[in-house]
């Protein structure tokens, strides 16, 4: 519980001071509230006296009234955070998460699924900030009210106080138990949910096959199996979480009854006056309530703690350090010097790679998928720092360059194009925010974007989201190439940019690439070897090492080499065609 | 439909499962009993006190009342527990029933419609939206029971004990009712604005996260982060606006719909009444014990609005999906005579007003190979989808073996046609399970023969730890793209379907294993009627029939050599293809001076 408070303070960020103030109001309000309940003891004592002590009774009613009003005022101050500050806490957390996402090492980013990050910045932030504004005050109440009431009862009669104390002592392990069970249940339900969700996706995707074989419909065996399993898990988790909660609540109720019984016994022994007992019972009912609520809230606290700690974990990720002594590169050759790299510190993806890409030259990386080609291009954008060796641009160690500085010198065209839901113009202009309209149009023309923009409803001002799927893969690719042309960075990285295109798009995208690479230092990842036979050097990567490198002709000359074999296989595959039918 | 209230929507779904409706009804009644019992328990506590005050010598009534108190309180507690248990169990069962209903509906819908909705969206509805009902069905409904029963029981009990003190407590009712009406009022405008802002934030977020590689290499932060930040700010404003309108209601609730003000009122009225001898000490005690109960029971009811609003959108989506029309099935289904395919004057549009195919005639004799070529969006994939009846045609007819596909059982149509045009689809399970999916009663030998024909056997026994019993991982994650592709080809082999519809682009997505997949495809197509959507024209030069589809029409058809000779649409596509395959990047290109 202390941990959750600490996390709340971390997440409150710039609003820590207000949050602290709110917590103070909350404690004060709750103390006043507890004191208000405590006044029932002398109040009832006065009313139950024979004859009724009206003067004292009125005095305590007055005190009660004052306390109720004071509590109200303090509560109003406490609630102000919820109404006035909560939205801004959410905003601050989201903005700082956004900053972190931009600044954290790409490798860290790559470790997290896009869906998880969306949940983090979306719903986790909401539950975290809600816990800051709502749960924190509830928490204060749950702890303070029983403590104060218990103390007052103890002052009235130590034996009655002891009954409550025993209840609290017994309740603590109960709460631990609730925490453990709801955690367990939460995990098992999450797993069952994920399995069911996966199976539903499977069902939808496999519907043609399942339908053909009578495995679709309400009795689909694969689906029913996992849904039934999910139901059992939910029931079991619910039961196992309910038992301790019920136990805790029952305990509280029994404590009330025990209080009445012990109190009655004391009255019968004339050790306690009736009015005092009545007063204690009324006050103790208030003691019980927060404890019962707490039993239910433990689960909620667990959830928000999970959300808070996930946010805290992301906020704690530092960007890659920028070493001192760097200067902006003035030439643009790329060098790998004995580079070894591993994602997890165990399996090395690159092992001692030495590579020189001279300025204004074309280097092709080829080799089986998973061999390390993509990792090499990623390291040029400082996706992560290699464990051994150095990557340099124009002789400058990348680790000494600020991210913005490095960014200026490298343009990347990915296989999967990502366009933002904005106008086509804005998507191109991203390459250079200060570009004039003429420059944008020129880049667009060079990338063959012009040819299809004319037929769009608003030309360059057409929003990409509006036409969505109306843009073909080739058209999207051309927009992304225009972006790179506009950027005019001296180093260009291409990752299989024409792999997923049809014949017609291919030609125009190829023309666009021709424009992009003019006068640049180019590194291209290629599967189709025929597209890179004219490269200055072809580097064959296999198992994280440079297996071969050289010009096409020289590599082919080594008939037993890896490259020559790949070349032969591709030639054969290119000659292949679908055979005619037997009846054709 | 959507004008219906949120609760109405949810109850509408519950009504589809009468057994669940009855079980939930029982749970509500048990909750009502529980509340009554709890109130009775508190009343007994009051009388126990009264008995002590009345005659301290007489122990028996004290014990009786105390016993009653114990019974009432514990009984009430156990009954409420039982109510919760009943409601939760019913709700979990309801989830299964609802999901199975949805699975049934999906199986009846046109497959094209299912694909258009997409597995992601359907998963969200069938899984997440159903789950979101739980809060209303399991938590809120019993709440309603106790939320209504408890105040009524408490007021009844207080009325019996002391009607004068009841009148005092009732003074609070208008204030509570006013606060409640403010609180539960649906601020539709603010809520919609909030929902919209919330959706926008999520969209911006998805964009920001997914576009991060682009953001990292192209954006200095001025564009993408601003877009994200703007949406976050808009959300903040929407929340602030909503908070501002609801703050007075919220404060009023926080200050008055809590026990203390009521208790203060009871005490302030109780002191003079007691002094005047109108009421007794036990009566005052009981009023202090149960007087605040009506107001306490009301508070959770206010959260109900939130629950219901949260579940409403999902309930609407669920109802829509459940009510989507299915494909009509024939009363007297027919069987095809052979594996020939014929399109007679087929027109088709996804929207009624925009046809994507117009009056298409096509004949593919059994055992021949037909290739569809043409620009993307021209209609190739639509033709491929109409053959297994993913949609019904707008006009004309699609026939397999001379029988209109609408006169065949839709499962029968799918048995005739093996599809290798989706992304390779694998289920979680073993390799053998995945291949056997196409023919659940296939023997091990049949599975193995299919795998051998699909050039999959070698990697299955050679590279996978447990051979055919290897788990493929989530959606086949443990296999490479080419391996997954060959498993799906093996499945098509095993199915024995005489017709194969194949998308070349996905079939050859794996350049490393190209040759293996080519062999597998060659074996798959042997002896079958084949329709292939082709992109790389060099692969189809030998097929029996090439059909150029453009703009929803058949532009040209014939054999490769004839079409190239004709100098028409195909000839220019072929020229483009030749040009594209000659392209390459060269050293001289990058050495040219920058413009």
From TrEMBL, chain A:
Membrane topology: Multi-pass membrane protein
SUPFAM superfamilies, A to Z: ABC transporter transmembrane region, P-loop containing nucleoside triphosphate hydrolases
Transmembrane segments: 25-45, 57-74, 132-154, 160-178, 250-268
Entry keyword annotation includes Nucleotide-binding: yes
PROSITE patterns, per the entry: ABC_TM1F, ABC_TRANSPORTER_1, ABC_TRANSPORTER_2
Location(s), subcellular: Cell inner membrane
This protein's record includes keyword Disulfide bond: no
GO cellular component terms given for this protein: plasma membrane
Keyword terms: ATP-binding, Cell inner membrane, Cell membrane, Membrane, Nucleotide-binding, Transmembrane, Transmembrane helix, Transport
Organism domain of life: Bacteria
A GO molecular function held by the record: ABC-type transporter activity
Sections of the chain in a coiled coil: none
Domain ABC transporter: 334-568
Annotated InterPro entries: AAA+_ATPase, ABC1_TM_dom, ABC1_TM_sf, ABC_transporter-like_ATP-bd, ABC_transporter-like_CS, P-loop_NTPase, Type_1_exporter
Annotated ABC transmembrane type-1 domain residues: 26-303
UniProt family annotation: Belongs to the ABC transporter superfamily. Siderophore-Fe(3+) uptake transporter (SIUT) (TC 3.A.1.21) family.
PANTHER family in alphabetical order: ATP-BINDING CASSETTE SUB-FAMILY B, ATP-BINDING CASSETTE SUB-FAMILY B MEMBER 6
Protein name (database record): ABC transporter ATP-binding protein
Native species: Kribbella sandramycini
UniProtKB/TrEMBL annotation, chain B:
Molecular function GO labels: ABC-type transporter activity; ATP binding; ATP hydrolysis activity
This protein's record includes keyword Calcium: no
Gene Ontology, cellular component aspect: plasma membrane
Compartments reported by the entry: Cell inner membrane
Family to which this protein belongs: Belongs to the ABC transporter superfamily. Siderophore-Fe(3+) uptake transporter (SIUT) (TC 3.A.1.21) family.
Organism: Kribbella sandramycini
Domain of life: Bacteria
InterPro entries the UniProt entry points to: AAA+_ATPase, ABC1_TM_dom, ABC1_TM_sf, ABC_transporter-like_ATP-bd, ABC_transporter-like_CS, P-loop_NTPase, Type_1_exporter
ABC transmembrane type-1 domain sequence ranges: 31-310
Chief localization: membrane
Keyword match Transmembrane helix: yes
Topology with respect to the bilayer: Multi-pass membrane protein
Keywords, sorted A to Z: ATP-binding, Cell inner membrane, Cell membrane, Membrane, Nucleotide-binding, Transmembrane, Transmembrane helix, Transport
Bilayer-spanning residue ranges: 28-56, 62-83, 140-159, 165-183, 255-278
Name listed for the protein in its UniProt record: ABC transporter ATP-binding protein
UniProt domain ABC transporter: residue ranges: 341-576
